[in-house]
Amino acid sequence: MPRTVLGMTLYNNPTHVREATDSILAQTHRGFALLMLDDGSSDEVEAIAHQYERQDSRVCYWRHARRQGMVATWKEVVEIAQREHPGAEYFAWVSDHDRWDPRWLERMIAQLDAHPDAVLAYPQTLRISEDGALVDKEPRVFDTSGIADPVERWRRFAWSGFGSGDMVYGLMRMRALEAAGIFRPVLNPDRMLIAELSRVGEIHQVQEPLWSRRQPGGASVARQSTSLFAGATPPRFNWPPSLQHAVILRREGFTLPMIATYVLASGWRATRKTETSKSIGRGVDNVHFVKRLVKKGFHHAVYYTIVGARMVVAKTRRATRKAVYEVLTFTHRAGLR
Q: Residues 40, 65: contact at Cβ < 8 Å?
């Protein structure tokens, strides 16, 4: 029975699914199961998946008769993993369009094996375009290794936990994933899952670029509003994501101070992304720029004033000394005559 199960959700992506699957099956650590759950894709995707199922005994394929949406599909593939491999210790979602370094799984398992307090290990992320070209973008950094206090881990994630969309593809302890509720029926379910995991245990980032993520187009929330659910949306789905999360967090026993920290931090982050905030930020930057220019000009003016004054004093001293010398010389010569 494998210690690790990988769950790949499929939906109408025949262009990249072979590249993604090949990179997963080429992992140096081979002791894993790959579960493919198809959310009602085209026949082409189904044929590709069946081909991998026939070729590699680690691959198993399931298919929805009609589309269920991302939340239901992501949660179901975890439930299949629990049912088919009840002894599995680790789980990771893998996509049908990204690319993994061959050492990815080996390094993630080693990280979790070496740190029993860690519940999630994930690598640095490279961004690639639709055609696979590298996108010039700084890797996101977040890590709570060594922080034993769950409240401090929670606060750190609330204010500094950027890149939940990267972290959600990391390798997780199955028991921690269960404790965090797997995938909640809310907007930004990946952020909420990582937030809940941060209370359960430490999040470790392996400082190696072992995963290439295809850069999506369009705003995340705009995509999620149509991809998370195939049918009716859950209650409060039109609320801001942080308030949707707050309702569930309260139900799960989180304290009011922790929820308040999470909502305030989320509101601040959302505000920082608005055009108004960016305009204010640019205005503040311009003010700082003008301030630096004025300060620099003042310093230059003081410098040149001091230097100029010193030059005048020096010239005056030289002229005085010259005049005194000439007077003394003239007087001396006149006395000799």
A: yes
Phi first, then psi, for residue 215 (nearest 5°) are -70, 115
Q: Tell which phi-psi region holds residue 69, choosing left (phi > 0), alpha (psi between -120 and 50) or beta.
A: left
Query: Can you spell out the DSSP letters for 141-189?
Result: ----TT---HHHHHHHHHHH---HHHHTTSEEEHHHHHHTTSS-SSSSH
pLDDT class of 276 with cuts at 50, 70, 90: very low
The answer to the question of residue 70 being in a domain is: yes
| DSSP single-letter state for residue 238 | T
Asked if the structure places residue 263 within a domain, the reply is: no
Q: Is a pLDDT exceeding 50 seen at residue 310?
A: yes
Q: Report how many domains make up the chain.
A: 2
Q: Report pLDDT for 280.
A: 44
Rg (CA), the chain: 32
Q: What are the tens digits of pLDDT across the range 162-174? A: 899 999 999 999 9
- For the chain, report the end-to-end CA distance as a whole number of angstroms: 123
Pair 212, 128: CB distance under 8 Å = yes
Q: Which residue segment(s) compose the domain that 319 sits in?
A: 276-337
Backbone angles phi, psi at 12, to 5 degrees: 50, 50
Measured from the Cβ of residue 118, the count of other Cβ atoms closer than 10 Å reads: 21
- pTM, 2 dp: 0.79
Residues 224 and 295 in one domain: no
Angle at the Cα of 179 (from 173 to 185), degrees rounded to 5?
A: 110
